[in-house]
Amino acid sequence: MGAAPNQETNSFLPDKSAKVFVAGHRGLVGSAIVRKLQDLGFTNLLLRTHADLDLTHQSDVESFFSTQTPRYVILAAAKVGGIHANNTYPADFIAVNLQIQTNVIDSSYRHGVEKLIFLGSSCIYPKFAPQPIPERALLTGPLEPTNEWYAVAKIAGIKMCQAYRIQFNWDAISAMPTNLYGPNDNFHPENSHVLPALMRRFHEAKIKGFKQVVVWGTGSPLREFLHVDDLADAVVFLMEKYSGLSHVNVGSGTEVSIKELAELVKEVVGFEGEVVWDDSKPDGTPRKLMDSSMLQALGWSPKISLRDGLVGTYNWYLEHVKE
Ligand SMILES: NC(=O)C1=CN([C@@H]2O[C@H](COP(=O)(O)OP(=O)(O)OC[C@H]3O[C@@H](n4cnc5c(N)ncnc54)[C@H](OP(=O)(O)O)[C@@H]3O)[C@@H](O)[C@H]2O)C=CC1
Ligand SMILES: C[C@H]1O[C@H](OP(=O)(O)OP(=O)(O)OC[C@H]2O[C@@H](n3cnc4c(=O)[nH]c(N)nc43)[C@H](O)[C@@H]2O)[C@@H](O)[C@@H](O)C1=O
User: Fold this and answer.
1) Residue 179 in contact with ligand 2 by CB distance below 6 A
2) Any domain includes 219
3) ipTM passes above 0.95
4) Is 262 within a domain?
5) CA 118 – CA 116 distance, rounded (Å)
6) Would you say the CB of residue 28 lies under 6 angstroms from ligand 1?
7) Can you list the alpha helix ranges (DSSP code H) found in 170-292?
8) Where does 24-129 show beta strands of DSSP type E?
9) What residues are paired with 152 via a beta bridge?
10) 148-174 pLDDT, tens per residue?
């Protein structure tokens, strides 16, 4: 589709004093990107909390861009949640995400941002997409109902980046990460994603001496997990190397069943009781392994195995999450 995937951009990495706005810098993804940029020596990161700048408020976003004039934008602010949150708050998931991304993308373009990366999600693809899912599977079939509202907003974000590239020749790209985990994840008991939810549930069961832990669904769905530090590395890589029209999948290439994940988290946490399945809860999409060969062909690959990533995340949880 459109521009060649290996088209080189103006270099992002050389100017470490460039103003980079990382939207959503306190979240799972935004905080990992900030760590990565700081490790690389970036000295001029623009960071605003949700309380400082509500990105759903167009006039505030406009005023921020006109006064701060960032050169680069990494858009990692969004309304995010797991299967239950997506299913329970469809209006929030579509409206907040459309507002944030529309405001940030449009203001970025009009205030001279040189390059923007928008983060979507693997849920943009049809529920029964071919596996592994290539970028071209977008808009080829019906979405998974538990997260179609969020997915529609994310698809609109991809299309907005493409439209601005086509009409204005503006360098907006999109990355589609698979299911992520790591430090600063959301460990809410109901609204989080499966991995932090299970880490917390197994941990609490271990501390409280429970005999059983309940896990949602049948355990049969397959998911692909990527450590957020790998994702942050991929985002910086794409900022440096990629300026194409197509969105780019970012996955680890390996998938596990939710049953296998539960056993692995149980082992890492050290819970010795039984796992009980609550099949009144939705399974969601049966499988969503992404085809990340486009990114690999550009020269990027992940480094952190699921087991190592889980151990590191559990250590982080023990140090940072208060009971
Ligand atoms: N987590 C995952 O498994 C995956 C995430 N992604 C994508 O990565 C991106 C980041 O997700 P993730 O880091 O997990 O999400 P988090 O919920 O951890 O972080 C989102 C961030 O956005 C901020 N934010 C939300 N609403 C607003 C607002 N109205 N104004 C300003 N800031 C706001 C939040 O601040 P506050 O908390 O104060 O509201 C928070 O810092 C999203 O685009 C998501 O779709 C893609 C695939 C998988
Ligand atoms: C990243 C991605 O995240 C969401 O999609 P999802 O992949 O279905 O994410 P999930 O992590 O919430 O669930 C994965 C699987 O795990 C099972 N499961 C078991 N026990 C718990 C549990 O305790 N919590 C949760 N959340 N799930 C559980 C659950 O039933 C499901 O089968 C989308 O909202 C979508 O918007 C999106 O982009």
Assistant:
1) yes
2) no
3) yes
4) no
5) 7
6) yes
7) 194-208, 228-241, 258-269
8) 45-46, 72-75, 115-119
9) none
10) 999 999 999 999 999 999 999 999 999
**Residue 1 C-beta-side C-alpha neighbours within 13 Å:** 17
Residue located nearest, by CA, to atom 19 of ligand 1: 27
Distances (CA, A) of 170 to 100, 110, 122: 19, 10, 24
Q: Residue 150 catalytic? A: yes
- Residue 313 domain-assigned (yes or no): no
Which CATH number does the domain housing residue 154 bear?
3.40.50.720
**Distance between Cα 232 and ligand 1 center (Å):** 14
- Give me ligand 1 centre to Cα 209, in Å: 33
Distance 83 CA to ligand 2 centre (A): 4
**287 exposed, middle or buried (CB, 10 Å; 0-12, 13-18, 19+)?**
middle
| 3-state SS assignment for residue 164 | helix
pLDDT exceeds 90 at position 322: no
Q: Within a domain: residue 178?
A: yes
pLDDT in tens, 238-250: 999 999 999 999 9
Query: What is the predicted pLDDT for the residue at 1?
Result: 39
User: How many structural domains comprise the chain?
Assistant: 1
* Cα of 94 from ligand 2 centre, angstroms: 18
State residue 173 phi and psi, 5-degree precision.
-125, 165
Give the position, in ligand 2's atom list, of the atom nearest the Cα of 86. Answer: 34
Q: Residue 64 is part of which domain span?
A: 20-185+224-254+288-304
Q: What is the residue with the minimal CA distance to atom 12 of ligand 2?
A: 82
Convert the pLDDT of each residue in 29-68 to its tens digit: 999 999 999 999 999 999 999 999 999 999 999 999 999 9
DSSP per position, 24-45 = TTTSHHHHHHHHHHHHHT---E
- For 116-134, write each residue's pLDDT tens digit: 999 999 999 999 999 999 9
* Rounded alpha-carbon distances, angstroms, from residue 282 to 147, 162, 259, 261: 11, 33, 14, 17
Instruction: Please give the number of the atom of ligand 2 that sits closest to the Cα of 215.
Output: 20
